[in-house]
């Protein structure tokens, strides 16, 4: 795999943040993140976006891409981190542990399933960038389906309710 396409212009890799993201991924998934697996890369992107929306600030900016929110610097940092083979024991903060546990408890396999993570992250992204409240199920679900027709409107509405009822997201 040609990883050069993931290289960010800025080589200031925030190893502390990327190590924390890898540790949270492992806590939620029960296994290590493997950047050579497409689903893991997708889950990394969506999970990091969701974690940031839930209040953890890792400093990554996301744009809209085919599968929803995407951050090229995050991909680059993750590949670099994995390539360096850094083996460190990361002690997650209480806040990080609490958010990871809440996500796992409230969303079940939705935080490990690539399709569900894409759905949740995409809804949060659209809610934020297009100023559509999570309480406006009709408008938000219609917008999502217009961009991602492989999701059904009712599926989007159920995901919106889950996001809203989780208490983890302000909108």
What topology emerges from the helices and strands here?
Blueprint: H1 15-29, H2 38-53, E1 63-65, E2 68-70, H3 72-84, H4 94-107, H5 114-129, H6 137-147, H7 153-166
Helix pairs in contact: 1-3, 2-5, 5-6, 5-7, 6-7
Short description:
This protein has 171 residues and is mainly alpha-helical.
In spatial order, strands of the major sheet run 1-2
H/E topology pattern: HHEEHHHHH
Radius of gyration: 16 Å
| Class from helix and strand fractions | mainly alpha
Helix content: 55-70%
Major beta sheet summary: 2 strands, antiparallel
Give the beta-strand count.
Answer: 2
Overall form: globular
State the distance separating the first and last CA atoms.
38 Å
Question: Number of helix segments?
Answer: 7
């Amino acid at each position: 795999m040609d990883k050069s396409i993931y290289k960010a212009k800025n080589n200031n890799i925030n190893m502390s943040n990327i190590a924390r993201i890898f540790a949270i991924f492992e806590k939620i998934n029960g296994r290590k993140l493997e950047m050579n697996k497409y689903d893991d890369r997708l889950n990394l992107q969506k999970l990091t976006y969701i974690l940031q929306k839930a209040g953890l600030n890792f400093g990554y900016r996301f744009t809209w891409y085919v599968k929803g929110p995407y951050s090229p610097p995050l991909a680059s940092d993750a590949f670099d981190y994995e390539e360096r083979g850094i083996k460190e024991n990361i002690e997650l903060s209480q806040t990080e542990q609490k958010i990871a546990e809440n996500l796992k408890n409230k969303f079940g396999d939705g935080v490990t399933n690539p399709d569900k993570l894409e759905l949740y992250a995409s809804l949060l992204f659209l809610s934020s960038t297009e100023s559509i409240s999570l309480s406006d199920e009709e408008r938000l679900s219609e917008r999502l389906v217009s961009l991602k027709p492989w999701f059904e409107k009712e599926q989007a509405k159920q995901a919106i309710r889950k996001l809203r009822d989780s208490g983890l997201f302000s909108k």
